[in-house]
Design goal:
- This protein is of the alpha+beta class and 550 residues long.
- The chain has three domains: 128 residues, C2 domain (Immunoglobulin-like, Sandwich), CATH 2.60.40.150; 135 residues, Sandwich (Immunoglobulin-like), CATH 2.60.40; 240 residues, von Willebrand factor, type A domain (Rossmann fold, 3-Layer(aba) Sandwich), CATH 3.40.50.410.
- The chain has twelve helices and 26 strands.
- The strands form six sheets. Strands 17, 18, 21, 22, 24, 25 and 26 form a seven-stranded mixed beta sheet that branches.
- Helix 5 packs across helix 10.
- It is globular.
Length: 550
């Protein structure tokens, strides 16, 4: 959601939501012994000088013609030039910084150009202005007017063995469009299983069938290979109406057919896909919940470990510069100024961790920076800044860097809100830190537990440390798993290093908050919780909006 955290234009009408689907062809092959592993990052320019990262697709192994399943949803303003940059990279490592990866090309355009074409294919360009080989990028735009989703529970029976005695199956769903079949959804891979049951998933009706329950849908079942050369187990064509006929007692059964085996004598199928549940529901949007009365509860946690350096030294990350903010204050100001608009009383609890505190001088990983445990709240962001500046001289920076106590602290309140069975409260925890997490296992467990609660975690890394641990927690490609093997129900962590934003607080806020609207709406929708005071916030269509300005 592009406007959340950005300065939205003073428009007469509310923004129209646009969903972008990305695919590429003929990408440069940057790997010696395999093909490139592409990922597409979307950058947005709203200020005229600085690009900020809006989001990334998944990475696809060994594929020069990738079709990305992850979509980008943006606010479209007819009256505003919205500059976009799509950058494609060959991912070679696990670091967050894309500068460490091979650049495969980019496309710069406006959202208006994409919307007016509906589907646009353009050559990818290198930074020197030359074509990136024969590489192209295709962007399809679709207005979001139908917010219904289909909730699926799907399993399979007797799939073909593709390697000795097993297969690693996953499914892909394709929507029929005027220009061909478009990837709508890709499930996770179930390893070593010919009778898999996939985790429940949801697909918007817009992405799956354009809202038409009788429109053809293609489903492919593949055996996953780590080198990207997935084997087709089988496929079939169906409709949403047909899939909806299934129940747990009597699933809709669709036979997987492999065209290469049709000529074999006695061939019947390569397995059966069972649709135990395909239930269509209205999905409420982030604006539905916010305008319906949902409030944010914003908590800030600040790293006061010794690795930050002596606050009296100009080299310290906690040094209070008389001529400007340090990185901690800049992050607090940037994110807090946006969040506070969604908190009615604008009173924020702020905690520190990793310091020795008066009067006992014991190390604490969860102390209020105003030293008032019964009332840890600060009045507005200005109050947070004041409390931070006043507490620094009273602390002894120490260690280690433990995240789990403060995560569990906020999760306690989020759990109480969940018990109320309403969509009135959502909790956002901002952690600002300079270094490596010491209690990684306990932190992973705390995040996995919190993923079942109305809660999101934003981590901003300050300074020049190695933040690979934080990047691991920000599980964009696959859901986080606890040491005990429990899997998070959703991705609730967004991490960014402060150094990526060159002092632009607006770009920092836009980047760290980009995923929050979807985290809010997806959580409440998954629990079937309606906005407390339901109001209609749907905007006009592209045609209606354009006409009003002509």
């Amino acid at each position: 959601m592009a406007s959340f955290g950005a300065s939205a234009p003073a428009a007469t009408h509310m923004a129209t939501k646009v969903e972008l689907t990305i695919s590429c062809d003929n990408l440069l092959d940057m790997d010696v012994f395999s093909k490139s592993d592409p990922l597409c990052a979307l950058y947005i320019n709203t200020s005229g000088s600085h690009w900020y990262e809006f989001g990334r697709t998944e990475m696809i192994l060994n594929n020069l013609n990738p079709k990305f399943a992850k979509k980008f949803v943006l606010d479209y303003y007819f009256e505003m030039v919205q500059r976009l940059k799509f950058c494609v990279y060959d991912i070679d490592n696990d670091t967050y910084d894309l500068a460490d990866d091979d650049f495969l090309g980019e496309l710069q355009c406006t959202l208006g150009q994409i919307v007016s074409n509906r589907q646009m294919t353009r050559p990818l360009m290198l930074t020197n202005g030359r074509p990136a080989g024969r590489g192209t990028i295709t962007i399809s735009a679709e207005e979001i007017t139908d917010t219904r989703v289909a909730n699926f529970e799907v399993s399979a029976r007797k799939l073909d063995k593709k390697y000795l005695w097993w297969s690693d199956p996953f499914l892909e769903f394709y929507k029929q469009t005027e220009t061909g079949w478009q990837l709508a959804h890709r499930t996770e891979v179930i390893y070593n299983n010919l009778n898999p049951t996939w985790r429940p998933f949801r697909i918007s009706l817009r992405a799956l069938c354009g809202g038409d329950v009788e429109k053809p849908i293609k489903v492919y079942c593949y055996d996953h290979h780590h080198n990207g050369s997935h084997d087709l187990i089988g496929s079939f064509e169906t409709t949403l109406a047909e899939m909806q006929t299934g129940t747990h007692i009597s699933p809709a059964e669709l036979k997987c057919i492999n065209p290469k085996k049709l000529k074999k004598r006695g061939y019947q199928n390569s397995g059966v896909i069972l649709f135990k549940r395909c239930q269509v529901e209205k999905e409420f949007t982030f604006l539905d919940y916010i305008m319906g009365g949902c409030q944010f509860n914003f908590t800030i946690a600040i790293d006061f470990t010794g690795s930050n350096g002596d606050p009296k030294s100009p080299q310290s990350l906690h040094y209070i510069n008389p001529e400007g903010y340090n990185e901690y204050l800049s992050a607090i100001w940037a994110v807090g100024n946006v969040i506070q608009d969604y908190d009615s009383n604008k009173k924020f609890p702020v905690f520190g961790f990793g310091a020795q505190c008066p009067p006992s001088w014991n190390v604490s990983h969860e102390f209020p920076i105003n030293f008032n445990p019964s009332n840890p709240f600060c009045d507005g962001i200005e109050g947070v800044v004041k409390a931070y500046q006043e507490c620094l001289p009273q602390l002894k920076l120490w260690g280690p860097t433990n995240f789990s106590p403060i995560i569990n602290h906020v999760a306690c309140f989020a759990r109480q809100a969940l018990y109320q069975n309403t969509a009135t409260q959502y909790y956002v925890l901002l952690i600002i830190t300079d270094g490596v997490i010491t209690d990684m296992d306990r932190t992973r467990t705390a995040i996995v537990d919190a993923s079942h609660l109305p809660m999101s975690i934003i981590i901003v890394g300050v300074g020049g440390a190695d933040f690979s641990a934080m990047e691991f927690l920000d599980s964009d490609d696959k859901l986080l798993r606890s040491p005990s093997g429990h899997v998070a129900s959703r991705d609730i962590v967004q991490f960014v290093p402060f150094r990526n934003f060159q002092g632009s607080s607006m770009a920092l806020a836009q980047s760290v908050l980009a995923e929050l609207p979807d985290q809010v709406s997806s959580f409440f929708n998954s629990y079937k919780l309606k906005p407390p005071n339901l109001v209609s916030v749907s905007g006009p269509s592209w045609t209606d909006r354009s006409a009003s300005y002509l």
